Amino acid sequence: MKNHKKLSENVIENILAMITVDKRFAIGDQLPNELELARELNVSRTTLREAIRVLIAYGVLEVRRGCGTFVTSDAADLRRNLEPLTGIKGNSTDLFEMRLIIEPEAAYWAALRGTDAEIKRIEELQNIIEENQKKHHIHFKDEYLFHQTIAQASHNEYMKEIIPILYQGVLKGFNLLFKDRNVIPKNNQYHRLIIEFLKLRNAEGARNAMKLHMLHTIEWYNQK
User: Fold this and answer.
1) Where is the HTH gntR-type domain (predicted)?
2) b/e per residue 37-62 (b: at least 16 CB within 10 A)
3) Domain-by-domain residue ranges, the chain?
4) Distance CA 88, CA 107 (A)
5) Rounded Cα gap, residues 50 and 108, in angstroms
6) Rounded Cα distance, 190 and 62, in Å
7) How far apart are CA 109 and CA 203, in angstroms?
8) What's the pTM?
Protein backbone atom coordinates (compact mmCIF):
# COMPACT_ATOMS: atom_id res chain seq x y z
CA MET A 1 0.00 0.00 0.00
CA LYS A 2 1.28 3.43 -0.82
CA ASN A 3 2.58 5.38 2.17
CA HIS A 4 1.40 8.73 0.89
CA LYS A 5 -2.19 9.80 0.56
CA LYS A 6 -3.57 11.31 -2.56
CA LEU A 7 -3.75 15.06 -2.34
CA SER A 8 -7.50 14.96 -2.90
CA GLU A 9 -7.94 12.66 0.12
CA ASN A 10 -6.08 15.16 2.28
CA VAL A 11 -8.32 17.93 0.98
CA ILE A 12 -11.43 15.87 1.77
CA GLU A 13 -10.21 15.37 5.33
CA ASN A 14 -9.37 19.06 5.70
CA ILE A 15 -12.80 20.20 4.52
CA LEU A 16 -14.51 17.62 6.75
CA ALA A 17 -12.45 18.92 9.68
CA MET A 18 -13.58 22.48 8.92
CA ILE A 19 -17.19 21.28 9.19
CA THR A 20 -17.08 18.58 11.89
CA VAL A 21 -14.17 19.49 14.15
CA ASP A 22 -13.46 23.22 13.81
CA LYS A 23 -17.18 23.91 13.17
CA ARG A 24 -16.10 26.71 10.88
CA PHE A 25 -19.01 26.06 8.53
CA ALA A 26 -22.57 25.28 9.65
CA ILE A 27 -25.53 23.90 7.69
CA GLY A 28 -26.38 26.24 4.85
CA ASP A 29 -23.04 28.06 4.95
CA GLN A 30 -21.27 28.76 1.69
CA LEU A 31 -17.67 27.63 1.24
CA PRO A 32 -15.12 30.20 0.07
CA ASN A 33 -14.81 30.48 -3.69
CA GLU A 34 -12.69 27.91 -5.49
CA LEU A 35 -9.62 30.10 -5.92
CA GLU A 36 -9.62 31.25 -2.29
CA LEU A 37 -10.15 27.75 -0.84
CA ALA A 38 -7.51 26.18 -3.11
CA ARG A 39 -5.04 28.85 -2.00
CA GLU A 40 -5.88 28.28 1.68
CA LEU A 41 -5.41 24.51 1.36
CA ASN A 42 -2.32 24.96 -0.81
CA VAL A 43 -3.59 22.72 -3.62
CA SER A 44 -4.50 23.13 -7.26
CA ARG A 45 -8.06 23.93 -8.26
CA THR A 46 -8.21 20.56 -10.04
CA THR A 47 -7.41 18.73 -6.79
CA LEU A 48 -9.96 20.82 -4.91
CA ARG A 49 -12.66 20.04 -7.48
CA GLU A 50 -11.97 16.31 -7.17
CA ALA A 51 -12.36 16.48 -3.38
CA ILE A 52 -15.55 18.52 -3.63
CA ARG A 53 -17.04 15.99 -6.08
CA VAL A 54 -16.58 13.25 -3.48
CA LEU A 55 -18.16 15.35 -0.73
CA ILE A 56 -21.10 16.15 -3.02
CA ALA A 57 -21.54 12.41 -3.70
CA TYR A 58 -21.59 11.80 0.05
CA GLY A 59 -24.20 14.52 0.54
CA VAL A 60 -22.01 16.78 2.67
CA LEU A 61 -21.86 19.57 0.08
CA GLU A 62 -24.12 20.74 -2.70
CA VAL A 63 -23.57 23.09 -5.63
CA ARG A 64 -26.20 25.73 -6.26
CA ARG A 65 -25.89 26.87 -9.83
CA GLY A 66 -24.82 30.48 -10.03
CA CYS A 67 -24.36 30.72 -6.26
CA GLY A 68 -21.54 28.44 -5.10
CA THR A 69 -20.91 25.40 -2.89
CA PHE A 70 -22.84 24.99 0.37
CA VAL A 71 -22.87 22.70 3.41
CA THR A 72 -26.00 20.52 3.40
CA SER A 73 -28.23 19.26 6.19
CA ASP A 74 -26.60 15.82 5.84
CA ALA A 75 -23.46 17.35 7.32
CA ALA A 76 -25.23 17.52 10.70
CA ASP A 77 -25.59 13.72 10.72
CA LEU A 78 -21.99 13.39 9.58
CA ARG A 79 -20.83 15.62 12.44
CA ARG A 80 -22.70 13.52 15.01
CA ASN A 81 -21.34 10.31 13.48
CA LEU A 82 -17.74 11.50 13.50
CA GLU A 83 -17.66 12.95 17.01
CA PRO A 84 -17.03 9.59 18.77
CA LEU A 85 -14.00 8.98 16.51
CA THR A 86 -12.33 12.37 16.47
CA GLY A 87 -9.69 11.29 19.00
CA ILE A 88 -8.84 7.99 17.31
CA LYS A 89 -5.64 7.90 15.24
CA GLY A 90 -6.66 4.97 13.03
CA ASN A 91 -6.64 4.90 9.25
CA SER A 92 -8.96 3.77 6.46
CA THR A 93 -7.65 0.20 6.61
CA ASP A 94 -8.62 -0.01 10.29
CA LEU A 95 -12.16 1.04 9.43
CA PHE A 96 -12.42 -1.41 6.53
CA GLU A 97 -11.36 -4.17 8.95
CA MET A 98 -14.08 -3.07 11.38
CA ARG A 99 -16.55 -3.39 8.51
CA LEU A 100 -15.31 -6.97 8.02
CA ILE A 101 -16.12 -7.70 11.67
CA ILE A 102 -19.54 -6.02 11.75
CA GLU A 103 -21.21 -6.06 8.33
CA PRO A 104 -21.33 -9.85 7.78
CA GLU A 105 -23.26 -10.08 11.06
CA ALA A 106 -25.60 -7.31 9.90
CA ALA A 107 -26.33 -9.35 6.77
CA TYR A 108 -26.85 -12.50 8.86
CA TRP A 109 -29.49 -10.87 11.06
CA ALA A 110 -31.08 -9.02 8.14
CA ALA A 111 -31.74 -12.40 6.50
CA LEU A 112 -33.48 -13.61 9.66
CA ARG A 113 -35.26 -10.45 10.79
CA GLY A 114 -35.65 -8.19 7.77
CA THR A 115 -39.15 -7.65 6.44
CA ASP A 116 -40.04 -8.44 2.84
CA ALA A 117 -40.35 -4.69 2.23
CA GLU A 118 -36.86 -4.03 3.61
CA ILE A 119 -35.28 -6.73 1.46
CA LYS A 120 -37.15 -5.41 -1.57
CA ARG A 121 -35.78 -1.94 -0.78
CA ILE A 122 -32.21 -3.31 -0.65
CA GLU A 123 -32.71 -4.80 -4.12
CA GLU A 124 -34.18 -1.52 -5.39
CA LEU A 125 -31.12 0.35 -4.11
CA GLN A 126 -28.84 -2.00 -6.05
CA ASN A 127 -30.94 -1.36 -9.16
CA ILE A 128 -30.41 2.38 -8.62
CA ILE A 129 -26.65 1.84 -8.23
CA GLU A 130 -26.47 -0.02 -11.54
CA GLU A 131 -28.70 2.46 -13.38
CA ASN A 132 -26.50 5.33 -12.22
CA GLN A 133 -23.40 3.43 -13.31
CA LYS A 134 -24.83 3.14 -16.84
CA LYS A 135 -25.05 6.94 -16.87
CA HIS A 136 -21.47 7.12 -15.50
CA HIS A 137 -22.84 8.55 -12.25
CA ILE A 138 -21.15 6.77 -9.35
CA HIS A 139 -22.30 8.13 -6.00
CA PHE A 140 -20.96 7.32 -2.57
CA LYS A 141 -24.42 7.89 -1.12
CA ASP A 142 -25.89 5.01 -3.19
CA GLU A 143 -23.28 2.60 -1.81
CA TYR A 144 -23.77 3.89 1.72
CA LEU A 145 -27.58 3.51 1.56
CA PHE A 146 -27.26 -0.08 0.32
CA HIS A 147 -25.19 -1.12 3.34
CA GLN A 148 -27.06 1.07 5.81
CA THR A 149 -30.39 -0.45 4.75
CA ILE A 150 -29.00 -3.93 5.40
CA ALA A 151 -27.98 -2.75 8.88
CA GLN A 152 -31.47 -1.36 9.47
CA ALA A 153 -32.99 -4.67 8.35
CA SER A 154 -30.99 -6.44 11.09
CA HIS A 155 -33.32 -4.72 13.60
CA ASN A 156 -30.40 -4.23 15.96
CA GLU A 157 -30.30 -0.66 17.24
CA TYR A 158 -26.53 -0.67 17.85
CA MET A 159 -25.89 -2.03 14.37
CA LYS A 160 -27.93 0.77 12.81
CA GLU A 161 -25.94 3.41 14.70
CA ILE A 162 -22.44 2.03 14.14
CA ILE A 163 -22.59 1.59 10.35
CA PRO A 164 -22.70 5.37 9.64
CA ILE A 165 -19.64 5.85 11.86
CA LEU A 166 -17.68 3.21 9.97
CA TYR A 167 -18.54 4.80 6.66
CA GLN A 168 -16.22 7.73 7.20
CA GLY A 169 -13.54 5.17 6.25
CA VAL A 170 -15.40 4.30 3.09
CA LEU A 171 -15.58 7.97 2.18
CA LYS A 172 -11.79 8.21 2.27
CA GLY A 173 -11.35 5.19 0.02
CA PHE A 174 -14.40 5.49 -2.22
CA ASN A 175 -12.99 7.85 -4.82
CA LEU A 176 -9.83 5.76 -5.17
CA LEU A 177 -11.73 2.47 -5.22
CA PHE A 178 -14.19 3.30 -7.98
CA LYS A 179 -11.66 4.95 -10.27
CA ASP A 180 -10.73 1.37 -11.18
CA ARG A 181 -13.55 0.39 -13.54
CA ASN A 182 -12.76 -3.30 -12.94
CA VAL A 183 -13.97 -2.94 -9.35
CA ILE A 184 -17.52 -1.96 -10.34
CA PRO A 185 -18.78 -5.27 -11.85
CA LYS A 186 -17.21 -7.25 -9.00
CA ASN A 187 -18.85 -4.95 -6.46
CA ASN A 188 -22.22 -5.44 -8.17
CA GLN A 189 -21.70 -9.20 -8.24
CA TYR A 190 -21.19 -9.31 -4.47
CA HIS A 191 -24.19 -7.06 -3.88
CA ARG A 192 -26.40 -9.32 -6.00
CA LEU A 193 -25.14 -12.42 -4.19
CA ILE A 194 -25.95 -10.84 -0.82
CA ILE A 195 -29.43 -9.92 -2.06
CA GLU A 196 -30.13 -13.45 -3.28
CA PHE A 197 -29.26 -14.93 0.11
CA LEU A 198 -31.38 -12.29 1.86
CA LYS A 199 -34.35 -13.17 -0.35
CA LEU A 200 -33.83 -16.86 0.40
CA ARG A 201 -33.62 -16.05 4.14
CA ASN A 202 -30.31 -17.88 4.15
CA ALA A 203 -28.51 -16.18 7.03
CA GLU A 204 -25.22 -18.10 6.70
CA GLY A 205 -25.13 -17.45 2.97
CA ALA A 206 -25.74 -13.73 3.48
CA ARG A 207 -23.02 -13.57 6.13
CA ASN A 208 -20.48 -15.36 3.92
CA ALA A 209 -21.33 -13.28 0.85
CA MET A 210 -20.84 -10.06 2.81
CA LYS A 211 -17.59 -11.38 4.28
CA LEU A 212 -16.26 -12.14 0.78
CA HIS A 213 -17.31 -8.65 -0.31
CA MET A 214 -15.41 -7.05 2.57
CA LEU A 215 -12.31 -9.24 2.10
CA HIS A 216 -12.15 -8.39 -1.60
CA THR A 217 -12.46 -4.67 -0.81
CA ILE A 218 -9.67 -4.81 1.78
CA GLU A 219 -7.43 -6.80 -0.58
CA TRP A 220 -7.95 -4.32 -3.40
CA TYR A 221 -7.50 -1.29 -1.14
CA ASN A 222 -4.24 -2.63 0.31
CA GLN A 223 -2.80 -2.98 -3.18
CA LYS A 224 -3.16 0.76 -3.78
Assistant:
1) 5-74
2) bbeebebeeebbebbbbbbbbbbbbe
3) 7-79, 90-222
4) 27
5) 36
6) 30
7) 7
8) 0.64
How far is it, in rounded angstroms, from Cα 53 to Cα 195?
Answer: 29
Residues 165-222: tens digit of each pLDDT? 776 556 555 655 666 667 788 889 999 999 999 999 999 999 999 999 999 888 877 7
Residues near 185 by beta carbon (within 8 Å), at least 6 away in sequence: none
Distance separating alpha carbons of residues 216 and 186, to the nearest angstrom? 9
What is the 8-class DSSP label of residue 203? H
Q: What is the CATH number of domain 7-79?
A: 1.10.10.10
Architecture category of domain 90-222 in CATH: Up-down Bundle (1.20)
Asked if 48 contacts 41 with a C-beta cutoff of 8 angstroms, the reply is yes
